[in-house]
Amino acid sequence: MSFAPSYSDLGKDASDLFNKGYDYDAIKIEIKPKSPGTSSDVKCSLTSKTLGGILSPATSPPLTTGLIEIKNKCKYFGVNTTTTIRQNSQITTEITKELLANKGKLTGEAKLNPSSGALALKSKGSYKNEHVNGSIQLETEQFKPPTMLGNIVLSYKGFLLGSQLLHTYSNHQVPYPDVSVGYQSKNKSYGLNALWSSNKCMMISTHQRIDRNLEIAFQGIFERNNALHPRFNVAARYAISDAIYKVKVNSQKLVGLSYSRLLQPGIKFTLSSIIDFNNFAGGNHRLGVAFDFE
């Protein structure tokens, strides 16, 4: 049985084509060791911004960051428990219980940072079936006002209607919801989405899989304060054998290029760059290199 998409998945295929596989100004190494038969996942990554400092020292100061994340998953009496520990001692515990033949879900999450003593609590309820996908979430964090986030998506024969509302209890004004309408074909080869955001911005995106190797996407962004100068983005992805080629172009004359290759099972290499044709002689071009080990 196919479920209606969640609100965060609306227009995701087009968004991924523009954002995934581009790591600028940095050398990035990510390691995900796998141990068969265990319930723990480990993720280690190191990102150095020194490459960006070489290319654009005025806008990209050198910076090196690291991440170590250990995630352990357990299941007791039908309740899923996930505990995540990060290198800054931040501990996150999530408890999930599935209901109504796996169509409904209750989730509770606690996030603790021992160094600062900050504690954040989150509770969420969700339900999805073929025609409806909705959730409501309440989050409280120390020294911050509680927030509530609710969203719903209605689906019928590929046509989609969704809405999302974020409310902070310190804000006594009535919030404006985000509204999205769209269409997605049954085999997901074509998708169209129009989003009206509460920050007075409208975005129209479309995504199409030409064949199993080629896919293209288009975005148009219209801002209320700058309606006479909309922004347009076009992207394409072509996969052949163990290599993936990506290109994206926007109306500001920026061209992004990405090349990924599976060097051998578990080792992936990605080289990406962005070229500023609006000021080509200025040298504000960017380059990134990434290695993924899994």
TrEMBL record:
Entry keyword annotation includes Transmembrane: yes
GO molecular function terms attached to this record: porin activity; voltage-gated monoatomic anion channel activity
Signal sequence extent: none
Key words of the record: Ion transport, Membrane, Mitochondrion, Mitochondrion outer membrane, Porin, Transmembrane, Transmembrane beta strand, Transport
Pfam (any one): Porin_3
Protein's UniProt keywords contain rRNA-binding: no
CC terms in the record's Gene Ontology section: mitochondrial outer membrane; pore complex
Main location: mitochondrion
Localization per Swiss-Prot or TrEMBL: Mitochondrion outer membrane
Family the entry assigns: Belongs to the eukaryotic mitochondrial porin family.
Protein name per UniProt: Voltage-dependent anion-selective channel protein 1
Species per Swiss-Prot/TrEMBL record: Oopsacas minuta
